[in-house]
């Protein structure tokens, strides 16, 4: 067996302990004589899996009682539509566009109402997060939307916008459970799990009770109504059972480590290894502005596409995989999610140092 250091942006690295535990239960989950993959979603064993997963997530994020936790399908992208369909009663929403994901979300919401882009960082290829101080929001807007960590450009909001009484909706896909958040700051906080939490196929939506509404846009499919899923406790139809199970194992893993404060400290330590190297390097440079750098996704370039390609090719010899950057930034991107061990980041930085000596 040869595990690599997997820097993929998503689907992405999972904790080895979790993979081993899933493997151990593959043929016979806890004496049921079957895999979780083969099990009825109405069974007692699965009821226990989803209820435990929800409780562990509530513990980890300190989710207040007034919020519902939904385990859904369709990815974060389906939520780009589900959010306006469910909560755009005035047909108005304010979006802050800080990268491709918030731009796509804004475009989708336009199908359902007026979308006002209150700030954008597209002028500098989304290398920063717009300053949120002094932003004015429409009093009649149904919500304010952000993507809190832009996976492609490697930026993260240094602080949240003050939206007053307007609900803040945040896509946290690529920073989910990487650090503590104050759930009460949000109306909806959601993310696809395949970046930092589990296998592809699950999106977790944490929604405040007053945003679970009957008066949704009339054509909203029944399955996409938050009310349907809240009433059915995410079991309106067959949920992504296996994915939810593995997310639950990751929640236990995080609790075992000491929770999100500990995880944040570990993530800061890992990110510092890479950023400190980039800041002194004469060959490589980070592309995101320093005050809004992500702890999770770190894009960097040499400035010479041929040298970038050479670096990426040689990474293979050092067990460094999936380091190629997204085409809209170019160069490299190291996604250093929760499950990336510190040794992986160290191995990357060691090789970057060696490559710099050989190629400068
Ligand atoms: C990957 C990603 C998405 C899209 O997720 P899907 O599950 O593929 O729909 C949306 N937002 C962010 C921030 C992402 O990183």
**Could you tell me the strand content as a percent range?**
15-25%
Tell me the structural class. alpha/beta
Instruction: Name the average pLDDT.
Output: 97
Helices and strands, in order, run as EHHEHEHEEEEEEEHHHEEHEEH
Give me the number of helical elements: 9
Could you name the ranges where pLDDT drops below 50 across 5 or more consecutive residues?
A: none
Q: How many individual β-strands?
A: 14
Bound small molecules, deduplicated: pyridoxal-5'-phosphate
Radius of gyration: 21 Å
Strand order of the largest sheet: 2-10-9-8-5-3-4
Give the oligomeric state of the chains in this entry, treating copies of one chain as homo and distinct chains as hetero. Answer: single chain
Write a brief structural summary:
This protein is an alpha/beta fold and 360 residues long.
Describe the overall structure.
This protein is an alpha/beta fold. It is 34% helix and 16% strand. The protein has helices at residues 16-24, 44-61, 75-87, 100-109, 226-231, 241-257, 260-280, 305-315, 342-359, and strands at 5-6, 67-72, 92-97, 114-120, 144-147, 149-150, 155-156, 168-171, 188-192, 203-208, 285-286, 297-301, 320-321, 332-335. The strands form four sheets. Strands 2-10-9-8-5-3-4 form a seven-stranded mixed beta sheet. Strand 3, helix 4 and strand 4 form a beta-alpha-beta unit. The radius of gyration is 21 Å and the shape is globular. The structure holds pyridoxal-5'-phosphate. Pyridoxal-5'-phosphate binds at residues 10, 75-77, 101, 147, 151, 171, 173-174, 192, 195. Residues 10, 75-77, 101, 147, 151, 171, 173-174, 192, 195 line the site of pyridoxal-5'-phosphate.
């Amino acid at each position: 067996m040869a595990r690599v250091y997997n820097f993929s942006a998503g689907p992405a690295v999972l904790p080895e302990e979790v993979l081993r535990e899933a493997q151990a239960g593959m043929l016979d989950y806890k004496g049921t004589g079957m895999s979780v993959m083969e099990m009825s979603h109405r069974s007692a064993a699965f009821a226990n899996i989803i209820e435990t997963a929800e409780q562990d997530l509530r513990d980890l994020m300190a989710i207040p009682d007034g919020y519902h936790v939904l385990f859904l399908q369709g990815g974060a992208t389906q939520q780009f539509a589900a959010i306006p369909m469910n909560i755009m009663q005035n047909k108005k929403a304010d979006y802050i566009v800080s990268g491709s994901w918030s731009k796509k979300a804004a475009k989708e919401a336009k199908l359902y109402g007026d979308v006002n882009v209150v700030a954008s960082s597209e002028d500098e290829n989304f290398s920063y997060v717009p300053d949120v101080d002094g932003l004015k929001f429409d009093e009649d807007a149904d919500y304010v939307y952000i993507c809190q960590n832009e996976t492609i450009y490697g930026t993260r909001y240094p602080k949240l916008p003050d939206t007053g009484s307007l609900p803040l909706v945040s896509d946290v896909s690529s920073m989910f459970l990487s650090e503590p958040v104050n759930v009460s700051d949000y109306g909806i906080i959601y993310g696809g799990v395949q970046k930092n939490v589990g296998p592809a196929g699950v999106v977790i939506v944490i929604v405040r009770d007053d945003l679970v509404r009957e008066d949704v846009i009339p054509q909203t499919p029944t399955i996409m109504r938050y009310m349907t899923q809240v009433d059915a406790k995410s079991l309106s139809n067959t949920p992504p059972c296996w994915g939810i199970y593995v997310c639950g194992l990751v929640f236990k893993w995080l609790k075992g480590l000491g929770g999100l404060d500990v995880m944040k400290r570990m993530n800061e330590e890992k990110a510092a290894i890479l950023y400190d190297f980039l800041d002194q390097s004469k060959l490589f440079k980070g592309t995101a502005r320093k005050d809004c750098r992500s702890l999770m996704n770190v894009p960097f370039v040499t400035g010479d596409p041929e040298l970038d390609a050479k670096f990426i090719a040689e990474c293979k010899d050092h067990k460094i995989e999936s380091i190629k950057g997204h085409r809209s930034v170019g160069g490299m991107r190291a996604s250093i999610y929760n499950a990336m061990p510190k040794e992986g980041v160290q191995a990357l930085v060691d090789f970057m140092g060696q490559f710099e000596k050989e190629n400068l």
